[in-house]
Design a protein that fits this description.
Length: 330
């Protein structure tokens, strides 16, 4: 019975603009380019094993974290193939350590140039070690492909579809000011920018790990022009914090929920796109490429097909390209 009630309730909330919440404006053309009816950004949180260290959501610790990373490695080429087939560009929010081909410990410490964050516990993490980098294998991407991914980054940047590689901190830290000092945040960002520039990538967009915000005032120092928030599910419009620096509000996370029918999930995500078109709003979807191996086939493929069928009405963009349009349109 629950499997029937929950989808029905979600549809009711969508119909009455409760979830996602629909924002209103009298001048949507400030945010939606001609001749489109809505804008769409899709973001993938590209993390491998880094997101799952100290996680409160997995029981077997490091071994399960490695399992997520291995699954993500299998999923990404499939996702990129779907993107090429349906002409859908993705913003890949990339953990900076993945740019590395290798690293090593010096005097017993990995990345000692980065000031460590404090111990903390919340809904997502329980960091009770003395070393945030304790799980870093300090080998290379062939020996430990769960912690390094220069090969996957190259695959993304050389795809037929013009994706964006964005920033997700260097080591998937909690960015709140209570846990992460200015010094730690600056060190993480500096290393991301340095490594990206080594492969001719200019980082412009930022996604907070765990969607926990902090140090917003420092982001523009590193050339960042937008960041994602996930305070509520919203079909609305970006918020400009200062000239050329935008907050993009999340609409929903794409998931394959085993407790909800595949048919309903597909219908629900298509209806969100349709709602964006009807209300002339910005739709920001995001997902974890570490999802189950059937996620691409069961969720992304039908969604991308629907997006492709409406591409004459949807401004499909990466975060970077959308920020550029907003800044040039002002």
């Amino acid at each position: 019975m629950l499997n029937i009630i929950k989808p029905a309730f979600k549809n009711i909330k969508l119909r009455f603009s409760i979830d996602p919440l629909v924002e209103k404006t009298d001048d949507y053309r400030k945010f939606i380019p001609e001749p489109y009816k809505a804008a769409l950004i899709i973001c993938a949180d590209f993390e491998l094993a880094w997101a799952w260290r100290f996680s409160t959501h997995i029981k077997s610790g490091s071994d399960e974290a490695l399992g997520y990373a291995k699954r993500e490695r299998k999923n990404i080429p499939v996702i990129l193939s779907l993107c090429d087939k349906y002409n859908v560009a993705i913003t890949w929010a990339t953990v900076g350590h993945l740019f590395l081909g290798n690293c090593k410990r010096i005097n017993g410490f990995a990345h000692s140039e980065i000031k460590q964050i404090k111990k903390f516990k919340n809904t997502y993490w329980n960091f009770d070690e003395n070393d945030w980098f304790v799980d870093d294998p300090c080998t290379d991407y062939k020996k430990s492909p769960e912690y390094y991914a220069p090969d996957l980054i190259e695959l993304i940047t050389k795809s037929k579809t013009k994706h964006e590689v964005a920033c997700h901190t260097f080591s998937h830290i909690n960015c709140s000011e209570q846990v992460c000092s200015n010094e730690s945040f600056k060190a993480e960002m500096s290393e991301c920018v340095r490594l990206a520039k080594n492969v001719n990538i200019d980082l412009k967009s930022f996604v907070y790990p765990g969607n926990i915000t902090g140090h917003k005032n420092l982001l523009t120092n590193f050339g960042i022009t937008s960041f994602r928030t996930d305070n509520n599910n919203i079909l609305g419009y970006p918020l400009e914090h200062k000239k050329g620096f935008w907050e993009f509000k999340s609409t929903t996370e794409l998931v394959l929920n085993k407790n909800i029918s595949e048919k309903f999930s597909n219908e629900y995500y298509r209806n969100i796109i349709n709602k964006a078109l009807k209300t002339n709003t910005v739709c920001y979807l995001w997902f974890h490429p570490s999802a189950s191996l059937d996620f691409s086939e069961k969720i992304l493929k039908p969604l991308f097909e629907h997006i492709c069928n409406n591409s004459d009405k949807l401004f499909i963009s990466t975060s970077k390209n959308y920020s550029e349009w907003l800044n040039n349109h002002e």
